């Protein structure tokens, strides 16, 4: 296994964390979009967001890998039109946060 190098260290390391997974049984593009939606969220808010995604109360906006992704009304809160509720990716990210 190769050694992992991060390109930038956080400004305040006490308020941030690093995590990664390998050989995961989830779709990369769905997980990427879900992880990008979690950026700059506090931990409790991120956990609540992922629980809401599993229950389809909140949506993950698809900004980069959005070919063939349907338009949903819930995406208005993110100022975009395309999104999904990737349950399997949300479960994995929730376990990663715990």
Automatic annotation (TrEMBL):
GO terms for biological process: cytoplasmic translation. GO terms for molecular function: structural constituent of ribosome. GO terms for cellular component: cytosolic large ribosomal subunit. The keyword Acetylation does not apply. InterPro entries: Ribosomal_uL22_euk/arc (IPR005721), Ribosomal_uL22_sf (IPR036394). Gene3D superfamilies: Ribosomal protein L22/L17. The keyword Ribonucleoprotein applies. Keywords: Ribonucleoprotein, Ribosomal protein. This is Putative ribosomal protein L22. It comes from Oesophagostomum dentatum (Nodular worm).
